[in-house]
Design brief:
Two copies of one chain form a homodimer.
Chain A: H1 11-18, H2 22-29, H3 37-50, H4 56-62, E1 67-71, H5 80-91, E2 97-100, H6 107-119, E3 124-128, H7 134-143, E4 146-149, E5 159-163, H8 165-178, E6 184-189, H9 194-199, H10 201-216, E7 221-225, H11 229-241, E8 248-251, H12 254-266, E9 276-278, E10 295-297, H13 300-316, E11 324-327, E12 330-332
Parallel strand pairs in A: 1-2, 1-3, 3-4, 4-5, 5-11, 6-7, 6-8, 8-9
Antiparallel strand pairs in A: 10-12
Chain A binds a DNA duplex through helix 2 and helix 4.
Chain lengths: ~350, ~350
DNA sequence: TCGGTTGTGGGTAACGTTTTACACTGAACG
DNA sequence: CGTTCAGTGTAAAACGTTACCCACAACCGA
């Protein structure tokens, strides 16, 4: 508790104050082998009295900074805070601190920020639905322990945590089909990159939609835009312009569903009277009274918790075989979906 | 571009490769005085060829890490990303990198995270609507350059960026009064701490509400809950239970307004037919079609930009007199407010 | 008594960067 | 022909921490 400005109190100050060596202090800090209870007590007290906190930057120079970096693709997407909470809760009782990168909207941004994190000596990285091409992810993971969240596909160098998007899409399709809908459209996020096409959640959801529709013997109606509100708005307009309109729309993300709802409101259509709408992610605002959006819940908290746990394990042992965790989504029915209009 | 694992390439490697001293490399990196064009060229090329990036942790030990920490009180509040964008845009062309603390919901969390940031050698901190008591903020600002956003009140040690919450509240009150409303209730975030009572935006908004109501000769009707969706829900229930119901509700934040809308929907009341509702912050979802919430826009992007600018100035000169920037809010009228019902 | 072990503690060399101080050149100046 | 001076470069000492290695004492079993 230094009051005011002045130099930082260092391990040397503590050592002098406790009348031991800096080595001793360091050992106590890391509760390493070779410290007697009496010495520990002395050092603890000195630390207390001086209000000493180790300087992470200096520690970094020797290997560990006790910092974990989290990369969010889009801080505006209300699904990510759930993941973050899971990460935080798991890390709460460890010495690790979490720091977030500012949201990055491009591959280039992402590379810049991950590099910045590595340069700052972070002990491990959690990448949430990263855009980086596969080979770069692999290379990254060779440099620093990493866990990739939300992106399907196996790697030997990083662990992954995903939610079963195939099943999730099926949940929605079956729910709508059970309500009697035959013409169910899907608005997806356009994907061109070939590896991303098989790995990104959006692409997998679209594939799940296709499979479920085929299983049900229904005709596929796919619109490609983006996972944004605007994407939903434009997608809905496209659908409304069709000679043969769908009776239900499955938006690939809640934020997309919001755009759809906006477009329907403008067109004077009622939901679910004229058209059913479903989203994906069960974000906080899906539950809001005036919206009350049917959606798929991904258990973000658990996703984050698993990611943190895997990362800690990998930091402890970089050679351990890579693990894939796959969680199951659940359907949350609310008021935007209803029986087929007559 | 090292392919694969292997040691980091350091300034020593660059020096050896360019056949100069490490000092020379360092000078080029920081474009310091005392480098000939020919040497610069040699060094640049070596850096290029080896794919060298300075190790921020090591730099930290010598003073600067080129890292700026941002503390968000609540990552779920959709207003903060706007501020963040402003910060990012201002810092884009500098050598600084932004890192965010995970959202913190208590004073203790906040202290932990700011300490963690200081321990990691951050060059400056931007604190967004921090909860920390004034003396701790002052002490913090003596340790590290800091800018406080959203919190009113002057300090000699840190700069501040605020939006004029008094005026903002008046915008709403006047808008509603102009529509004919006489009984306008306000849902505020309960505040007990005395310094926070004068400094926190929520408290100032409540004060602005009081002033504007008095000016208009209207009676004050204040409900104290929290700035959360639940707070809005509970506040609305309280208001609905009154014998003499208000005809308009001014919620202190958009998220609160969402709770209000939920409660009204449940009670079978129409908006704005039966009751007008207004929020504050003009968050992204206020604009969403099905919600279309009247709100006050705070120009978050500009707020962030100013904060970053001030911080850079303070990092450059820690002794400079502290600056207070105050921005003006604007009213955004949407569909949740309307004329007094008959 | 001896060698070996175990429990404690410290000395010191890194880690990668910046910064201070200084050495060496020529050239310009009187 | 000394003296100053700007320009160009380097050596070496920090910065705060950890990890390796060694020293010392006490105890053990043979």
């Amino acid at each position: 508790m230094d009051s005011g400005t002045g130099r930082r109190v260092t391990i040397v100050d503590v050592a002098r104050h406790a009348k031991v060596s800096t080595t001793a202090v360091s050992k106590v800090l890391r509760n390493a082998y070779g410290t007697s209870p009496s010495m520990r007590a002395k050092v603890q007290q000195a630390i207390e009295e001086l209000g000493y906190r180790p300087y992470a930057a200096a520690r970094g120079l020797r290997g560990k900074t006790y910092t974990i970096g989290v990369l969010l693709p889009d801080i505006r997407n209300p699904f990510f805070p759930d993941i973050l909470d899971g990460i935080k809760d798991t890390l709460r009782d460890t010495d690790y601190q979490v720091l977030l990168g500012p949201s990055c909207d491009s591959e280039k941004d992402e590379a810049t920020i991950t590099n910045a994190m590595i340069d700052r000596g972070m002990d491990g990285l959690i990448l949430i639905a990263p855009l980086l091409p596969r080979p770069l992810l692999e290379r990254l993971a060779k440099t620093v322990p990493a866990v990739v969240v939300g992106r399907h596909g196996h790697s030997d160098h990083y662990d992954t945590v995903t939610d079963d998007d195939i099943t999730g899409a099926a949940l929605i399709v079956n729910h709508l089909a059970d309500l009697g809908h035959r013409h169910i459209a899907h608005i997806e996020h356009r994907e061109t990159d070939p590896t991303r096409l098989s790995e990104m959640p959006n692409a997998v959801r679209a594939e799940g939609y296709r499979q479920a529709m085929r299983t049900r013997g229904l005709e596929i109606d796919l619109v490609s835009t983006t996972y944004t509100q605007e994407g939903g708005y434009l997608g809905a307009q496209q659908l409304l312009a069709r000679p043969h309109r769908p009776t239900a729309v499955f938006a690939g993300a809640d934020i997309v569903a919001m755009g759809v709802l906006t477009a329907l409101t403008e067109a004077g259509l009622s939901v679910p009277g004229d058209m059913s709408v479903a989203g994906y992610d069960n974000t906080t605002f899906a539950a809001l009274g005036p919206i009350s959006l049917t959606s798929v819940d991904q258990a973000g908290h658990e996703i984050g918790g698993n990611a943190a746990r895997l990362l800690l394990a990998r930091i402890a042992d970089r050679k351990r075989p890579s693990t894939q965790v796959k969680l199951s989504p659940t359907l949350v029915v609310r008021r935007t979906t209803g029986p087929l209009p007559l």
